[in-house]
Amino acid sequence: KIYSTYKAASYYLNLADDKLHFVKDKEVVTDWGCSQLSKAVLKSGISAKDRKVYIQHILMYDCHFFLSMCLLQKPARKYGLTVDAEIFKFMQKYYPVANFDYTKQSHNNYYVVRKRWVELLHAVGENGSLNQTIKNCIRQDSETQAIFNEIETHVKDYTSDLRQRSSFIEKKNAFVTIYQSAAKTNKDKSGFVNLYDISKEMRMNYGRFQVFLTQFYQEERLTRNIFFINIVSTIEQRKRFYIGNVPVIKIKMTKNYGV
To answer: Which pTM does this prediction carry?
Structure first.
C-alpha cells in the first residue's frame, strides 16, 4: 500500500514538473512552496487565487489534452459514454503522436491525474459546460483561444463517432445477453450458439450482422476468449459469416481471466 501511494504521488509530481513546469531547480516552485503544490492532491478546497494559477499553467502547457477532456464531457454523457473510454481515441484521431502508445499504462496513469485536476478545479459543471474561470483564462490569450476553437470543432466532428459507438455498445450488450441466454438452454453440450439464431433475435439482416460481428470480435477478443466453428449437426445451407477470411456459423465465449 505504501508503494502504491508513493507511485500515485510520483505521477502527480512528475506531471507537475515535466509537463506543467511548476518546479524549477529541484526544490524551487514557480509560484509557491512545495506544500502548496501538493495541496490539490490531498484536499478538495482550493482558493480562487490558486485555482486560477493552476488553470493558467495547465492551459499553457497541457491545453490540448486538458481541454479535450473537458469538452468531451457533454457529448459523451449525451450518448451514455464516458470520457475515460473516449479520450484516447479522440487524441489519437486528432492529435496523433508518432511512436506514442496512448494505451500504455503509464499514459493512463497520467490521465488519471489529469482527471483529478478536472474534478478539483471544478473545470466542468453538472451540465457539462466549462467553468467560468477557465473561459476567462481562454479569452485572455489568443493562442489558447485558437486551440480551444480547434478542439471545439474536433469535438463536434467526433460526435458522429460517439453516436456510432453508443449504437455499437447497445448492440453488443444485446448480443451478449442473447448469447448467454441461448447458451444456457442450448442442447449443444459444446456450448456453441448458432450465429443465425442470435442475428434473428437482434433483428439484423446478414449484411448488418456481418459488419457488427467483425467489430465485436476486433474489440472484444482482448477481454473475452471467443471461439468460432463452421460445423453443424445438420445440413446447413445458409451463407456463412466471416471472421477475416474464415467462414463461421457458431460462436462460444468465455471470460479472459488473464486480462
So the answer is: 0.74
